[in-house]
What we know:
It is a single chain. The chain is mainly α. Helix 4 runs parallel beside helix 12, helix 7 packs parallel to helix 18 and helix 16 packs across helix 18. It has one domain. The radius of gyration is 21 Å and the shape is globular. The chain is built from 18 helices and no strands.
Amino acid sequence: xxxxxxxxxxxxxxxxxxxxxxxxxxxxxxxxxxxxxxxxxxxxxxxxxxxxxxxxxxxxxxxxxxxxxxxxxxxxxxxxxxxxxxxxxxxxxxxxxxxxxxxxxxxxxxxxxxxxxxxxxxxxxxxxxxxxxxxxxxxxxxxxxxxxxxxxxxxxxxxxxxxxxxxxxxxxxxxxxxxxxxxxxxxxxxxxxxxxxxxxxxxxxxxxxxxxxxxxxxxxxxxxxxxxxxxxxxxxxxxxxxxxxxxxxxxxxxxxxxxxxxxxxxxxxxxxxxxxxxxxxxxxxxxxxxxxxxxxxxxxxxxxxxxxxxxxxxxxxxxxxxxxxxxxxxxxxxxxxxxxxxxxxxxxxxxxxxxxxxxxxxxxxxxxxxxxxxxxxxxxxxxxx
Length: 385
């Protein structure tokens, strides 16, 4: 007998079976990120796609307490884990010209989101999507999720928004990788760095790193994250801003990282734990994605995302020309803004710009720090018009 939406193979209350599926999807995404396929399409995309397929073929349910638990508790816990290394002094000190390019690129994303909002009919969720997209592309997935929770996107709306944005992010990364090889761009924005790289032997800048497992480090990181989340929830309740508790989590995590930088720098495994929690969340998002709703709703959001991408690229290129920013700096700053710290490092490594790896990562971290506030502010501004 074929399974139906009302009677999937794994029921919504089969907690262990559904948790096994979520954990397996998260593992698959992490594993794919280290393969040829994952490096070109991102493991996150496959986690969402496979989760969506399982749900829409009625192997797993579209709604379950498992998904709710992951979204309600794993996401807030992951944010401090991802931000414990956010050293703001280092971001400011090492950013240099890449920081200027990052600022230009971030402004391009922001303006693209605003202009696209007024040009396209995004419906009632328009202000929320504008804020979520601006945050996601200035920062990263953690900011995308944080703003989505702050503006109260429903799981269905979130699934549609992130599904439509995934292809845009991939297109943006591919374009940023291709820019140095485009003669018109090279003529428009000169680059001493690219010229030197092309005349020198191409060195591999990426080295394999292994994270040493220390139970005391992992236990300490989890405890610190729980403490920050607990304090944030109480503070948000006391201030009457419960829906914005995720922003207080961000503030307290950044404060802790910069008040006790030596302690948090010594931690090993904290970032990886945060990444794993985010992969679990993306698995739950894929599982709650209704393909019919996507087909009906996503095209306009996809077009909106492509508009933001086109405006962002044009604005960044023109800004780099006017401010006389080296093309290599502009590309890494743009990558830090649009696709995040790790992809920015990958872009720098792929082109042999080993001295730009660290600034790219630092600017990407700065994006994680500021993007949630930009996204929530933009959603509130547009929603109040």
